[in-house]
Sequence to fold (112 residues):
Amino acid sequence: MLLPILPDTLRIPCGEAYPGLIAVVRPMDLEDKARWFDATAGEVGSSLAAVEAVRRQLVTIEGLAVEAADGTTVSFDATNHAHFRALPMALITPIFTALIERTALHEDHRKN
Fold:
């Protein structure tokens, strides 16, 4: 079996509903997944758990801007709580799915 070393970041397309948007995330390693699992009390299938996983791992979303309170447009900042809370759930879902899929060991990792 061959285990791949995780890169520093992954670029994840945000799905057909959001063409051109690319989520840049830190992949979940063993410790990240354990902290997330403990923080969500094992409710890995819940929407809140998905949001929490993305919040913890999201670096930025390329191509996304946010309208500030004064009407100006600013780049999306994943560390800004108001920016993150403005994301629609339909944007969170493909990011979460890609994060979780990359934490599982698949058959293509096996080498004979």
